[in-house]
Amino acid sequence: MQLIIPKDYDPKLSVRETQEAIRYIRETFQDEFGKQMNLSRLSAPMFVKKSTGLNDNLNGVETPVSFTMQEIPDETIEIVHSLAKWKRWALRRFGFDVHTGLYTNMNAIRKDEDLDNIHSIYVDQWDWEKVITKEERTEETLKKTVRQIFKVMKHMEHEVWYKYPQAVYHLPDEIHFVTTQELEDRYPDLDRQAREDAICKELGCVFLMKIGGPLKSGKRHDGRAPDYDDWELNGDILFWYEPLQRSLEVSSMGIRVDADAMARQLKIADAEDRLKYPFHQAIMKDELPFTIGGGIGQSRLCMLLLGKAHVGEVQASLWPDEMIERCSDAGIQIL
After folding, report:
1. Would residue 110 show up in a list of annotated catalytic residues for this protein?
2. Which residue is catalytic, options 181, 249, 264, 326?
3. Element (H, E) at 48
4. pLDDT 10s digits, 181-237
């Protein structure tokens, strides 16, 4: 268990005021985000059949929570890690046109997560996906979309400042684009987290691009499943977060794999056995639309905008007793 205790921490808002602010941020952001990105809200599953191949494999080592159900006894049912694959399937199923898309409130359990100030076993995010053309599978499209999302986040900062001026955490005015290889070249002696911290402290907000594939060193900056993001056209939105003196990831996103990218990445990841699943077969046969999509952490965004020291201040999850006690002693109000 890792825990950062900021010196002289002041939560600014009471627990009840924080709960009101959480509701306001979530409702206001999703409405503005959907409008700016031309997305419709859809309901989404909390669990899927393992046999569909629709669950997110994350780094390939995390085990999903699974169960069987009375009426389908021969199927293993898995609680989702994210809806990265399901969304693309849904865009085809519901007949979305080019430049339209969906967003959904996604709730998941990642039971193998290492807990700290920003990581919880409970995941709540806006999962979103949008149809693009094959010709739009470019870095230009990716950067344009990132700037749109950053603009909505900045708009939310102003909205929160209007209602909670004593509590709002001010965001930088610009987002910068940096690749993982540029980061390795710049900080060859630092590990992944230290590199992200260093570049975010310098620039304020960064979209870190090209995550998943091996770098010149032979190492990967970070793990990324091989069967949804194109590793050459993806990235994370990271902010320098002064209260914790570290970087804070708020969104992971990317242009999704086409048949060529999937085949290449599955081979690199030694995961070609996944081609047996219906989802992967549909990609290889060009039966699914070309898309861009990602997730935006709901609790992470609330934490960022309200200057909170612990994600447990803006979501109800489970934490070790020792962590709860240390937080309480420091004025960190775990829900």
Report:
1. yes
2. 249
3. strand 47-49
4. 999 999 999 999 999 999 999 999 999 999 999 999 999 999 888 998 999 999 999
- In three-state secondary structure terms, 154 is helix
Q: Is residue 122 part of a domain?
A: yes
Under DSSP, the state recorded for 280 is H
Q: Is residue 9 part of a domain?
A: no
Residues constituting the chain: 335
Annotated catalytic, 136? no
Residue 5 lies in a domain: no
Q: What is the DSSP letter of 275?
A: G
Residue 230 included in any domain: yes
What total number of domains does the chain contain? 1
Q: For residue 143, what are the contacts with CB-CB under 8 A and spacing of at least 6?
A: 177, 207
* Average pLDDT in the chain: 93
User: Which CATH number fits the domain that encloses residue 121?
Assistant: 3.30.930.10
Cα(293)–Cα(101) distance, integer angstroms: 9
User: Residue 54 sits in which domain range?
Assistant: 15-329
56: annotated active-site residue: yes
Alpha-carbon span 252 to 61, nearest angstrom: 19
41 annotated active-site: no
Long-range contacts of 18-21 (CB under 8 A, 24+ apart): 18/306, 18/308, 18/313, 18/314, 18/333, 19/335, 21/160, 21/163, 21/164, 21/167, 21/302, 21/306
**Does the annotation mark 236 as catalytic?**
yes
26 is a catalytic site residue? no
Spatial neighbors of 315 by CB under 8 A, at least 6 apart, are 120, 122, 124, 298, 299, 335
Q: What residues form DSSP beta bridges with 79? A: 47
Phi and psi torsions of 125, nearest 5°: -150, 160
For residue 1, is pLDDT > 70? no
Count of H helices and E strands in the chain? 9, 11
